[in-house]
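User: Could you walk me through two proteins back to back? I'd like the raw sequence and the structure tokens for each, with a short line separating them so I can tell where one ends and the next begins.

Assistant: Of course. Protein one, sequence then structure:
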Amino acid sequence: MEIEVVDRKENKLLEREEIHCIIKYEGPTPNRQKVKEELKKALGLNGFIVIHRIRPMFGMMQAKVYAKVYPSEAVARKIEEDYILKRETRGKGGKEEAKEETKEEAT
């Protein structure tokens, strides 16, 4: 996977760094966990990374990514919406785990 940073801003008010980048990949669109790992390696990031969106480009093996880097998970929990954090903390089970969580909440 290749990462090209388009824009990188520091948002001091919300204690985060906002990164817009384009990833180039082979095969299917990589999952959030894979993108996080590659961002950490390529950009030398440390902290809690929240992938806000991955938008594949039609007909290309590329996607636009918007990520936010917080100094810790506690800071991210104060600012980010719950549904975004649930996406980030979801394990490898993905949709199956989300379905189980909603079943448990319903009972």
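----
Protein two, same layout:
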Amino acid sequence: MKKIILGIAGEIAGGKGAMTKYIVEKFDGTSLRFSTMLRDILDRLYFEQSRDNMQKLSTSLRSVFGEDLLAKVMADDVRKNDANIIVIDGVRRIDDIKYLKEIPYFKLVYVDTNMKKRYERIVGRGENSDDNQKTFEQFQIDHEKETELQIKGLKNEADFVVDNNGSLEEFYTQIDNIIKKD
């Protein structure tokens, strides 16, 4: 099988994780997440893995070490990975794809989902410690944070756009078509 490297972008709770899980399970891929490096640091510092803490840490690291810091780390992680299919979950900004686009077989996928569906998902899944009690108004405010502002612009940079407003079956069919194209 030819090597496939997919960077997954989309707004909070849009289905990036679901896409990643599906590809990893169905196509025996491997997953890398931008948030993993932030979670590792928060764990080491004994800080809660909340969305707020991850946003603050990301902003701080990038302001001190450069906007492309996380992209450099991720690109090195991808280069060191021998898997045939690699899914990179959590692409958030143009700088995140700067180095990844230099890697052969890299494609950017944007998952497009409306805000109401995304809010229902985030509260239901509770991935971060502060997700379960989040109001819709707080969810809307989360989209105004610095770490979220560039995400919509990635849709214009995407090689593929997946509509995740329908059924799971429709979502999976779109993903299958992407894997088959590569």
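Residues 51-65 form the longest helix (15 residues).

Let me know if you want the two compared in more detail.
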